[in-house]
Write a structure and sequence with these properties.
The chain is an alpha/beta fold. It has 2 domains: 254 residues, LarA, N-terminal domain (Rossmann fold); 167 residues, LarA, C-terminal domain (2-enoyl-CoA Hydratase, Chain A, domain 1), CATH 3.90.226. A hairpin with a 3-residue loop joins strand 7 and strand 8. The chain is globular and about 60 Å long. The model has no long low-confidence stretch (mean pLDDT 95).
């Protein structure tokens, strides 16, 4: 059922608009005794989920007893991050998702179904895992809050991904990520109906129908002046709210270019991106727009590690970003990668497949570390002097020497492609 729907390419939803939308939906839901909120973490700061969670706390008061950030494999949020994102929401409400231990399996999507929807690229069953708090907490309302935006693993982020991946366990996360990578990232990005989504939808329909989940979905983009604008808010307890948000997100967050980009410069906000695990969105989201033999320059002042999880970090350092063919062989030959398929998927996602050059400019990793994982290295200070992010505008810029670059101030907010490359993947 759809409880609230408002959105459009030119909408500018204010905090007051968001509050009115929430109140409309919550009033329709009726009184609740115990509420759990499941928002994203700081890596989705621009989603408005922090504000919406705070508003939900104001509405429900002491009935909202727990908040479980859907961190997936990301590091737990710090107290400073919680205050920055969630405002006055009491810190004692927040719980930590331990994705390696605090999960239970609701059921298993059959291997033959996974094989069928993936076109035969994988043949394993998929466990529908969630944090045990969702099942054992006695909640009569679970608010899954987040932003719908193009995504490299599932096509369009959020909806039930926030539950089954954001609060999921090792096997579920690993296998879903690897399914998307093996199927082909460029055949997935920007599409609401993908093999990974089909598998998670199967899990929702067969194993999670008893969970009282209501989805609060936003669509956020930049206006022509580069300012963030909330373009949509959709609230419901089934896939309709996601489909509406996904349709709008394609209009708001997807930029179709006439010609491929010869040189792209992407800036990673240090408050949001501290690892290549996250920062490689700069690669995922631009890959379909990059010209053969082009160059992608990543300005990453906050990047200090590869993986947010110790095990994943070690695997990235061990194998590097080496492309699909090489990674699939490594998975076949190495038990540590077979046990961590999410890391294997990430190694595929973070490669240009040899098509274009990737130059990383990290603030807290050295040349030897960056080159060891098969990226090119450049000094951040030198590149920031040449590419002044305070003066560049999103899109094409012509520099003083006549060089033309395509600048992206936050890769997490969009997807870029040429029409030819996008259409060829349909």
């Amino acid at each position: 059922m759809l409880y609230f729907s408002r959105g459009g390419e030119n909408e500018r939803l204010s905090p007051d608009d968001l509050l009115k939308g929430l109140k409309t939906a919550f009033d329709a839901l009726g009184p609740r005794k115990k509420v759990l909120a499941v928002p994203p973490d700081l890596t989705r700061m621009h989603s408005q989920a922090g504000v919406l969670t705070e508003m939900a706390w104001f509405y429900y008061g002491d009935k909202l007893t727990d908040i479980l950030p859907a961190v997936g494999t990301h590091s737990p949020m710090t107290e400073q991050q919680l205050k920055h994102m969630f405002g006055f929401t009491p810190l004692d409400l927040f719980r930590v998702h331990n994705w390696r231990q605090d999960v239970i399996t609701l059921g298993e999507v059959p291997a033959d179904y996974v094989n069928k929807v993936s076109g035969g690229v994988v043949d394993y069953a998929w466990p529908a895992q969630v944090n045990k708090l969702l099942v054992q907490g006695g909640f009569d309302l679970i608010l899954s809050i987040g932003q719908v935006v193009p995504h490299e693993v599932i096509g369009m982020a959020n909806y039930n991904k926030n539950i089954f991946v954001g609060t999921g366990g090792p096997e579920g996360i690993n296998k879903s990520h690897f399914l998307g990578a093996a199927y082909g990232m460029e055949k997935i990005m920007g599409r609401a109906d993908t093999p990974v989504r089909k598998v998670i939808n199967y899990a929702s329909e067969h194993f999670a129908s008893g969970l009282p989940i209501v989805y609060i979905q936003t669509v956020v983009g930049r206006d022509k002046q580069g300012n963030l604008q909330t373009r949509g808010l959709f609230i419901g307890d089934d896939i309709e709210c996601f489909n509406l948000a996904a349709e709008l997100s394609l209009k708001v967050n997807f930029e179709m270019l006439d010609e491929p980009i010869k040189k792209a410069v992407v800036y990673l906000d240090p408050n949001e991106y501290k690892s290549t695990w996250l920062g490689n969105k700069s690669i995922y989201r631009t890959r379909m727009a990059m010209a053969d033999c082009g160059e992608l320059i990543i300005l990453a002042p906050g990047v200090c590690e590869f993986g947010e999880d110790k095990t994943i970090d070690q695997l990235i350092r061990k194998y590097g970003y080496v492309g699909t063919e090489r990674v699939l062989k490594l998975v076949k030959d190495n038990e540590d990668l077979r046990q961590n398929l999410g890391a294997a998927a990430h190694l595929i996602h973070g490669s240009s497949e040899g098509r274009f050059k990737i130059t990383y400019c990290p603030g807290k990793l050295g040349r030897e570390q960056i080159e060891s994982v098969n990226f090119n290295f450049a000094e951040l200070a030198d590149m920031l002097r040449w590419y002044d992010v305070k003066k560049l505008k999103d899109g094409f810029n012509k520099l003083s020497d006549g060089d033309e670059i395509f600048f992206i101030s936050n890769p997490g907010l969009g997807l870029w492609s040429t029409k030819e490359r996008f259409d060829s993947k349909n």
